[in-house]
Design goal:
By secondary structure, the protein is α+β, with helices and mostly antiparallel strands. It has helices at residues 3-16, 51-65, 84-88, 106-116, 131-145, 149-161, 202-205, 211-221, 231-237, 300-313, and strands at 22-28, 32-38, 46-47, 180-184, 189-193, 208-209, 252-253, 258-262, 265-274, 277-284, 289-295, 339-343, 346-352, 358-362, 365-373, 377-382, 390-396, 403-408, 411-415. The protein is globular, with a radius of gyration of 21 Å. The protein starts with a helix and ends in a 6-residue tail after the last strand.
C-alpha cells in the first residue's frame, strides 16, 4: 500500500473539490492502521449521516444475538406484517420519511408512522431505502433495553469498542462536532451549514465520528474483537437479502450493510451524507481490510468517487457501486414513463421534453434530466450541478406490465393514480 501516494492524492482531491477537510483511515492486514487528514484533526468527529444506520443495525443485531430481539417476529402496534429483518434490509415497503413530524418522542413518532404510512409494496417484496424504517428499529431497541436509543448505542456498542459518543442531535448532543459546508464549486466557496436532523430521526443519522472511529467499528463488523454480535448473526448482516435490489446505491443489501462487488471480491459498508458532509465506510470481511473517508463538504461524494480509483492504484481495490457501467443501448422513452410518482409525502413528477429526454422534478423543484437506456434504466443529469454519475430506473408491474414505480437513490416511488372526479 503506497501511503505517500494516497496522502498526496487525497490532498489534491480535497483542493479540486473545494472540500474544507477530509480524514482517511485504513486498516490493512500486515500494515495495521494508517491515517491521514487534510484540514481536519485526525480525531475530529464528523457527522456521518446514514452510516448511523449501520450502528443502529449492529445494536439491534447484538440484541438478537442476546435473545432480546427476534428478526422475524411481527412488530407490535404496526398495521403491516413488518419484521426487524424487513426494517434492517429496507424491504418493508415503507416510504423514506414523513414530512409532518408532530412529536419529539421517538416512541410516538414510530407508532404514528407504523399506523399511518401507506406502503409502497408488501413487506419482503422489494427494496426501498427508508429512514422511518430505522426509526422503528430505534424504537425496538428502546423497548428491548429500557434505555433511550442514545444510551443504548453508547452502552451496547460504542463503549465496548472504546469509542466516545458524538451525536448531532438529542439529549447527548455534542456541539463540538465538525461543521459541514455547502460547496459552490463554480465560485470556489464553502459556506458552513448547521445540522437539521429532526430529533426523532436520530437512529437514522445522528452520529458523528472520525475516520479512525469508523475503522474501529468496521473491524468489528469484519470479525475482529470485541465479538458483540454472534458469528452467525454477523454473517447474516453481510449476506444479501432476497428481493433487496438497491438499484442506484449498491449491488445488494444485507441487514444494515450495503453490499459491493469488485473483481469478484465482496465488500460491505455504507455511505452517509449529513448537512454539508459526506462519509464512506468499506469493509472486506475476507481479509479484514477496512477503509473509511470522512469529508466536511457537500462535494465530498464526488471526491469519494474520484478517490476509489486512487485507492486501487495504491493497492486497495475498494468495492464501490458503478451504475453507469450497466448502461446499454439508448432508447426513446416508452409509453407510461411520464406522470406523478409518490414516496410518502414526496412527489416525483416526470414530464417529456422536445428531445428524447425526460424532465424530473421533486416536490415541484427541478431535479434532473433523464436519458433512458435498455431495461428502463436512466442516467441522471443533475439540474444544479450537471453531474451525471447517478442512475435510476423505472419498474413495471409484474401483473399488468405497465410502468408502476420509479427508483432513485434506492428509493421507490409508486405511480399516483389520478382521483376520479
Amino acid at each position: 500500500m503506497d501511503t505517500d501516494q494516497l496522502a498526496r492524492r487525497l490532498a489534491d482531491l480535497v483542493r479540486d473539490h473545494h472540500v474544507p477537510g477530509a480524514q482517511l483511515a485504513v486498516h490493512h492486514p500486515g500494515d495495521g492502521l494508517w491515517t491521514t487528514s487534510v484540514g481536519l484533526a485526525e480525531d475530529a468527529a464528523v457527522p456521518i449521516g446514514s452510516i448511523t444506520k449501520t450502528f443502529t443495525a449492529t445494536v439491534a443485531m447484538t440484541l438478537v444475538s442476546d435473545g432480546d430481539l427476534d428478526l422475524d417476529t411481527p412488530l407490535p402496534d404496526v398495521d403491516h406484517p413488518l419484521t426487524l429483518r424487513h426494517l434492517l434490509s429496507h424491504t418493508g415497503g415503507l416510504p423514506s420519511d414523513p414530512d409532518d413530524i408532530r412529536t419529539t418522542s421517538l416512541r410516538r413518532h414510530a407508532l404514528e408512522a407504523g399506523r399511518t404510512l401507506v406502503p409502497l409494496h408488501s413487506p419482503g417484496a422489494g427494496f426501498s431505502y427508508s429512514n422511518i424504517g430505522y426509526v422503528l428499529v430505534g424504537h425496538l431497541i428502546e423497548v428491548a433495553t429500557g434505555m433511550s436509543w442514545w444510551e443504548a448505542v453508547d452502552a451496547v456498542l460504542l463503549r465496548p469498542l472504546g469509542l466516545r459518543p458524538h451525536f448531532t442531535v438529542g439529549p447527548e448532543e455534542d456541539r463540538n462536532v465538525v461543521a459541514g459546508h455547502a460547496v459552490n464549486a463554480a465560485q470556489r466557496r464553502a459556506v458552513p451549514v448547521s445540522q437539521s436532523l429532526a430529533l426523532v430521526d436520530a437512529p437514522a443519522g445522528a452520529l458523528a465520528a472520525s475516520a479512525t472511529d469508523l475503522v474501529t467499528f468496521g473491524r468489528m463488523l469484519a470479525g475482529a474483537p470485541p465479538h458483540l454480535v454472534d458469528g452467525a448473526d454477523l454473517a447474516l448482516m453481510r449476506t444479501p437479502v432476497r428481493h433487496a435490489e438497491p438499484f442506484g446505491m449498491a449491488d445488494g443489501w444485507g441487514l444494515g450493510l450495503a453490499l459491493y462487488e469488485r473483481d469478484g471480491v465482496a465488500w460491505v459498508g455504507h455511505d452517509g451524507t449529513a448537512d454539508g458532509t459526506s462519509c464512506h465506510l468499506r469493509i472486506n470481511p475476507a481479509d479484514g481490510t477496512v477503509v473509511a473517508l470522512t469529508t466536511n463538504g457537500s462535494s465530498g461524494f464526488a471526491l469519494w468517487r474520484d478517490l476509489v480509483p486512487v485507492l486501487a492504484e495504491a493497492g486497495l481495490p475498494v468495492g464501490d457501486y458503478d451504475g453507469l457501467g450497466d448502461l446499454r443501448d439508448p432508447i426513446a422513452p416508452p409509453e407510461g414513463c411520464t406522470g406523478s410518482f409518490v414516496n410518502g409525502d414526496v412527489e416525483y413528477s416526470v414530464q417529456p421534453t422536445e428531445r428524447e429526454v425526460l424532465k424530473l422534478t421533486v416536490d415541484g423543484e427541478p431535479f434532473a434530466d433523464l436519458s433512458l437506456f435498455d431495461g428502463l434504466v436512466f442516467e441522471m443529469r443533475d439540474s444544479d450541478t450537471g453531474d451525471t454519475s447517478q442512475t435510476g430506473r423505472f419498474l413495471r408491474d409484474p401483473r399488468g406490465g405497465g410502468i408502476q414505480w420509479i427508483q432513485i437513490g434506492g428509493r421507490l416511488a409508486r405511480r399516483q393514480v389520478p382521483e376520479m372526479v
